[in-house]
Backbone:
């Protein structure tokens, strides 16, 4: 196969491969420029961002072209890498590229001298991470998939532990690595089941297999376990709140916004593409796990006092909602209700893009806050809106999206998801019809709690008065950081206001996976988003925004015209209480207290309350999740017990080892004799 | 059935907005008056809310030294949200172009948007009352919002639509059909409206005692025109909730697209319904006592469960 030199005749898949190679080369250049800080941060990272932007363009173009395949002559001698660029991979390439573009631009202004890993090495790990994520979605056989998947896990492990001198961060990294590998075993076994003893591990072969319901369900269970571990589904979520705060902010942004979505990609690929038939109860299982995860995530997010842990739990919540949406799509697909499956799937895919954009924006803003103040604890922040207005306003947009408020992108996803729930009474299964309203109620509760959490997040960091005197010197984000955040901000706003145009991009994906799409239906109503008919439901974000803005503007102008616009600045009123200090504001713990009280059974709490006679009163509350106590510590204990038993073999004396060899030899001889 | 842009639609839309803006303080005044009568007090004039607004608009606004632009923008945002909410709920006619832009779910989102902004503004000054109010407001909100959504879902399952206009048309056309699910939803809706509008069992609009108040704690730092806008928005919210309740549970008399002249008849009917509803609200408030803040989640959880039961009842009995 000769190399085509005419660029114009390259397939989109070729372009995608070239761009992935470009990321790897940029990473390699980082090693060459190991300690040349300026070069790495101001040339290589922006280059990587540009590659990401082009890659997302390639993704968009590939959505509307038929699937393209390629076989690479690398890999094992009999098992070359198969690659395939179809609508599903194109969509995720687009999300990866668009998010990476913003995060890389931010990273150019983020990493500083003398922190953890040398900049060049960081650049290598970062770009290998990006390239491997793109590789996962392009892979078309289990071998290539697993190689890319493991590269993704390893490179992100090194990124998480970049500040490896802190013991806590090393622990978080190992926990992450452990869960990632346990999950990878599940995925590997899932592929083993899917190839149905043919020995051919290409995805094309898996698509052709007709598994019995039993084996198909085994594959489903393994996929749920494997991809769930990566995505953070209950009860395999434990690594997320540890790893995200440990990693540098751009890395947390990528992991939370993109890497978790790669796990969702894997789930979609296995359930709706590789498996030819779906069973309805798979959907119910996904729905149940998803809802439990979402509620758990948001309740824990509401009580956190570390801003990055809060966002990590919020990511768990969003992954739960995504899983619930996919579960609903699987239920519909199992009953061959294609249009409804397409609706539920569209909701989930819009949520994928929306979460990628707003969560990366929020993580980046915590990065800026961390740089400006050196503080991750919400209780020591406050009032940053005055010193960091730029970051604050950008965060506000992310917060509105994360709380699922109209007219943001988060609301579009939530709206579509609730619409697909409202259609369920058509299902031919009375049990499901009963279950679905309860599920819809839980989703509404989760969305409302997300609002609580986000008010806490934004209000405590940016509003009020600075809780520490040194916060007054906080500086706003630098130009690179602003550029990166502005890109994500723009993406968020456009996705929120132009859902109809965006659904045209989702349409090919749902057509590929469930055989129907919303594209033509929603295009028929101009500015109104109507998933079926306009009598049934419609939502017009632009009109909505114009409505609120027009009332705002009219009120503003009329008040000034009819009355006046005088204003006087004075000390805060506060019921006339003059001795108000900044420490008297609600802390993060205070703001989360109602949630701690209402959802008490969710938490494993340890409290130290001060008595009135203490000379140094001390209030301490530690909130942990039950899964550690109920599930993980017993597993850890069991592992240690087994290890100790195995340790009995290790006597450290040569005579004992010789004895073992001798006994083994005798035993083998006996076996062979018979 | 629904046209995007017709002359009648534009007129009824405009009429509806103007009517809501003009009548909302009157409804507040009416409720206050009824309550005063029931409690054997001499009532303030019916038009008192208008005098109050006029007075506040004339005063200059005193803003804390370190208040951010968010604090000053919030009254306008909240006012804008409530004005939009009033204009998408079919009160006089179902022929409203703006209803297409926001269905029942978006309406709930609109209330949530206003709540989030007013809570953020309360936290902006950094006083302990402000954050206390914000926390309590969000506490009430996160339980009331899903309950309200479930109430709308009950109605939308019956009418197979989340569009408010279609819901009202379907419910108004039912003849002798009884929906037990709507009974559950109705009780839930009343509880939610009491909580969301800072009414007695949850909050007391008449009190200024710091430890019991929620709404007042939120807006403690506002004065002058900002306070006027927020008070007006609060009236609009009460008006919107009343109209939403009327639209869902007593929808008869709302004009439809085919009959624009019915609007002439719809107006007195609406006034009558609002007067009765306002008096009923005053009775409810007089008969109940304010509850402790940590009883409120239980109260609202009841509403949430009732609405979910309503949904289940619909699926069991009505489909």
Residues:
């Amino acid at each position: 196969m000769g190399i085509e030199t005419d660029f114009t005749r390259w397939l989109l898949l070729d372009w995608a491969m070239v761009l992935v190679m470009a990321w790897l080369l940029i990473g390699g250049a980082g090693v060459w420029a190991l300690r040349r800080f300026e070069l790495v941060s101001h040339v290589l990272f922006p280059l990587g961002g540009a590659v990401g932007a082009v890659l997302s363009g390639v993704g968009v173009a590939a959505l509307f072209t038929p699937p393209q395949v390629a076989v690479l002559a690398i890999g094992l001698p009999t098992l070359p890498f198969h690659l395939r660029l179809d609508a599903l991979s194109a969509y995720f390439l687009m999300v990866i590229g668009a998010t990476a573009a913003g995060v890389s631009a931010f990273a150019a202004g983020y990493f500083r001298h003398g922190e953890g890993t040398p900049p060049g090495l960081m650049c290598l790990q970062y770009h290998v991470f990006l390239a491997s994520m793109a590789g996962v979605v392009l892979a078309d056989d289990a071998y290539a998939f697993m190689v890319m998947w493991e590269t993704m896990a390893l490179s992100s492990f090194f990124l998480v532990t970049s500040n490896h001198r802190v013991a806590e961060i090393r622990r978080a990294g190992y926990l992450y690595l452990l869960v990632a590998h346990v999950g990878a075993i599940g995925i590997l076994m899932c592929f083993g089941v899917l190839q149905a003893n043919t020995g051919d591990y290409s995805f094309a072969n898996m698509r052709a297999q007709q598994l019995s319901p039993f084996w198909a369900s085994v594959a489903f269970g393994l996929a749920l376990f494997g991809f769930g571990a990566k995505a953070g589904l209950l009860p395999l979520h434990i690594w997320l709140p540890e790893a995200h705060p440990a990693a540098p902010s751009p890395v947390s942004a990528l992991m939370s916004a993109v890497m978790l979505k790669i796990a969702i990609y894997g789930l979609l690929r296995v359930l709706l593409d590789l498996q030819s038939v779906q069973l309805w109860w798979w959907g119910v299982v996904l729905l149940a796990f998803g809802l439990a995860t979402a509620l758990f995530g948001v309740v824990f997010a509401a009580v956190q006092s570390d801003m990055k842990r809060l966002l990590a739990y919020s990511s768990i919540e969003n992954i739960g909602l995504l899983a619930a949406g996919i579960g609903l799509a699987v239920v519909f697909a199992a009953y061959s209700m294609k249009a409804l499956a397409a609706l539920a799937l569209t909701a989930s895919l819009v949520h994928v893009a929306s979460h990628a954009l707003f969560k990366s924006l929020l993580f980046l803003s915590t990065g800026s806050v961390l740089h400006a103040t050196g503080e991750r604890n919400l209780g020591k922040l406050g009032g940053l809106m005055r010193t960091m207005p730029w970051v604050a306003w950008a965060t506000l947009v992310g917060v509105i999206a994360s709380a699922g408020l109209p007219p943001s992108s988060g609301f579009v996803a939530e709206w579509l998801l609730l619409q697909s729930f409202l259609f369920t009474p058509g299902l031919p299964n009375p049990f499901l019809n009963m279950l679905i309203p309860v599920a819809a109620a839980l989703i509404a509760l989760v969305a409302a709690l997300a609002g609580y959490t986000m008010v806490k997040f934004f209000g405590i960091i940016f509003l009020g008065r600075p809780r520490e005197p040194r916060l007054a010197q906080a500086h706003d984000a630098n130009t690179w950081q602003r550029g990166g955040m502005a890109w994500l901000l723009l993406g968020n706003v456009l996705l929120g206001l132009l859902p109809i145009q965006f659904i045209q991009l989702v349409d090919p994906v749902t057509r590929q996976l469930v055989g129907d799409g919303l594209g033509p239906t929603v295009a028929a109503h101009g500015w109104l988003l109507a998933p079926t008919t306009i009598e049934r439901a419609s939502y017009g974000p632009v009109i909505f925004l114009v409505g609120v803005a027009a009332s705002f503007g009219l009120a503003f102008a009329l008040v000034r015209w009819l009355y006046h616009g005088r204003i006087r600045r004075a000390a805060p009123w506060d019921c006339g209480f003059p001795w108000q200090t900044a420490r008297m504001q609600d802390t993060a713990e205070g703001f989360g207290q109602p949630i701690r009280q209402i959802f008490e059974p969710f938490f494993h709490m340890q409290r130290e309350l001060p008595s009135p006679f203490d000379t140094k009163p001390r209030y301490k509350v530690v909130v942990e999740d039950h899964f550690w106590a109920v599930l993980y510590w017993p597993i850890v204990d069991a592992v240690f017990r087994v290890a100790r038993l195995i340790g009995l073999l290790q006597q450290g004396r040569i005579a004992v080892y010789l004895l073992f060899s001798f006994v083994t030899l005798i035993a083998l001889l006996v076996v062979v004799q018979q | 059935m629904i046209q995007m842009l017709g002359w009648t639609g534009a007129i009824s839309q405009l009429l509806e907005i103007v009517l809501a803006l003009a009548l909302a303080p009157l409804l507040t005044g009416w409720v206050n008056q009824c309550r005063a009568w029931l409690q054997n007090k001499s009532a303030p004039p019916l038009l008192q809310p208008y005098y109050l607004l006029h007075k506040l608009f004339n005063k200059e606004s005193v803003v804390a030294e370190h208040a951010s632009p968010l604090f000053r923008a919030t009254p306008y945002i909240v006012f804008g949200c409530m004005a939009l909410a009033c204009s998408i709920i079919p009160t006089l006619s179902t022929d409203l172009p703006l209803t297409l832009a926001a269905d029942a779910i978006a309406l709930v989102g609109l209330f949530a948007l206003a709540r989030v902004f007013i809570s953020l503004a309360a936290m902006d000054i950094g006083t302990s009352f402000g954050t206390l109010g914000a926390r309590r407001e969000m506490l009430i909100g996160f339980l009331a919002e899903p309950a309200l959504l479930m109430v709308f879902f009950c109605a939308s399952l019956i009418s197979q639509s989340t569009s408010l206009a279609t819901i009202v048309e379907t419910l108004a056309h039912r003849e002798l059909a009884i929906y037990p699910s709507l009974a559950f939803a109705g009780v839930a809706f009343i509880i939610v409206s009491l909580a969301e509008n800072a009414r007695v069992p949850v909050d007391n609009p008449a009190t200024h005692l710091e430890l019991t108040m929620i709404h007042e704690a939120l807006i403690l730092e506002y004065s002058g025109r900002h306070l006027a806008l927020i008070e007006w928005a609060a009236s609009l919210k009460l008006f919107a909730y009343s109209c939403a309740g009327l639209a869902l549970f007593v929808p008869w008399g709302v004009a439809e697209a085919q009959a624009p002249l019915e609007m002439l008849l719809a107006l007195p009917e609406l006034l009558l319904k609002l007067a009765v509803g306002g008096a009923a609200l005053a009775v409810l408030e007089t008969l109940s006592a304010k509850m402790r803040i940590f009883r409120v989640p239980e109260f609202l959880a009841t509403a949430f469960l009732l609405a979910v039961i309503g949904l289940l009842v619909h699926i069991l009995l009505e489909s």
Notes: The longest strand of chain A covers residues 68-76. Chain A touches chain B through 85 residues (CB under 8 Å). The radius of gyration of chain A is 27 Å.
